[in-house]
Design goal:
Helix content: under 10%
Radius of gyration: 21 Å
Structural class: mainly beta
Strand order of the largest sheet: 1-31-28-29
Number of helices: 0
Mean pLDDT: 82
């Protein structure tokens, strides 16, 4: 008889959703982590490292209409681990670092011609103790880049004059791992790793380009291991942040109320993945699981299908464990949405309980997370 040992991992917070807002798409062509991503003219581009340890940076274009990926020209710079990007009009811009000279290089990409052109970069006194690790956004026709430099760490790029302007420093010195997004006329940067401690902060800061001032807003709620190397995107003036590598939590932020709300989690979890939005939908994919393996999943978020969550603490029992055909729940009322994952974070089964039971007969013998 086959037994399916199930490791029950933090099954204490239940979310009520009318229908799954996340849907799987065609897999990404490679199992690897993303370096940066940008959208131009209704298409997305993902830059990633070669899985064969080559220093080449590969560029893949995503076509929403056909749910397909096409490889474009290899970038003229090598994988330096830390890069950021922003888009202005019909051009994309990628910033990378030179760890020896503390220069930040800037490369312009034209999707129509598939050609890269180097533009004017900018220099720093240093990149701090922990590297470059930029967070980049576009706002009002300019690009904004936040780095880990301990001075003059926030700068704006004007593509018309091909020049940089030093702005007010980010208020909290960090080791990186911030994520940025813009809504309306305002820029936002969330979390980061506190300088010298290695601990993640849950700060959210708002930057006003007119006043050149920062204002602290509501902290993002706690996550699992960390928020490092997660994803963010915006849809209709709402920001979405998530994919922490341990618990795969996802949140949305509404500037109008300065509130965070937990939403339905994506169908897989991982760090160093990509995240972007096109039109009314969000997209996440690739990355590294908490166990260290690469994935090529791609998932699509439809915000219209999201329902308000409920954080209910319940006492319950799940049996038998190990199981061969079915497992049963006791103490949980109604239909409960579930997901079953391999230990390296791959979703292998999902659905809703039927008569307080979950059928596991289709699973191979092994250890799983429910």
């Amino acid at each position: 008889m086959k037994y399916i040992p199930l490791h029950l991992f933090l099954l204490i917070s239940f979310l009520s959703f009318s229908q799954s807002a996340w849907q799987p798409l065609n897999d990404f062509p490679l199992e690897t982590g993303a370096l940066t991503q940008f959208t131009v003219d209704g298409a997305a581009y993902v830059l990633l490292r070669n899985p064969n340890n080559s220093p080449d940076v590969r560029n893949f274009k995503y076509d929403v209409a056909t749910d397909s990926w096409t490889e474009k020209s290899i970038a003229p710079f090598h994988d330096v681990m830390e890069m950021g990007s922003f888009s202005i009009n019909n051009e994309a811009y990628v910033v990378i670092n030179d760890p020896v000279t503390f220069d930040m290089q800037l490369w312009e990409y034209n999707p129509n011609t598939d050609v890269w052109i180097q533009k004017n970069g900018t220099s720093y006194a240093n990149f701090g103790l922990y590297g470059f690790d930029p967070a980049a956004i576009s706002l009002n026709g300019k690009g904004y880049v936040l780095t880990t430099s301990d001075q003059d760490n926030f700068r704006a790029y004007d593509p018309i004059s091909d020049s940089w302007e030093i702005l007010a420093d980010y208020p909290v010195p960090t080791e990186g791992n911030q994520m940025g997004f813009s809504i309306g006329e305002i820029a936002y940067f969330v979390h980061g790793t506190i300088l010298g401690s290695g601990n993640d902060t849950r700060d959210l800061w708002q930057y006003n380009p007119i006043s050149n001032q920062w204002v602290q807003l509501a902290d993002i709620p706690p996550a699992g291991l960390a928020y490092a190397n997660t994803v963010s995107f915006t849809i209709n003036d709402i920001a979405y942040v998530g994919m922490d590598p341990e618990l795969n939590l996802f949140y949305r932020y509404k500037p109008s109320t300065n509130e965070w709300e937990r939403i339905e989690s994506c169908g897989y979890s991982g760090s160093n993945g990509f995240g972007f939005s096109i039109g009314e939908f969000g997209y996440v994919g690739t990355g590294t699981t908490v166990m260290g393996s690469h994935v090529n999943d791609v998932w699509k978020l439809n915000p219209e299908l999201l329902s308000v969550n409920t954080h209910e603490q319940k006492e319950f029992t799940i049996y038998p464990n190990p199981a061969s055909e079915n497992i049963f729940t006791q103490g949980l009322n109604g239909t409960i949405q579930y997901g079953i994952y391999t230990v390296d974070g791959k979703l292998v089964s999902k659905g809703n309980t039927t008569n307080n039971s979950i059928n596991v007969s289709q699973l191979n013998e092994g250890l799983y997370i429910l």
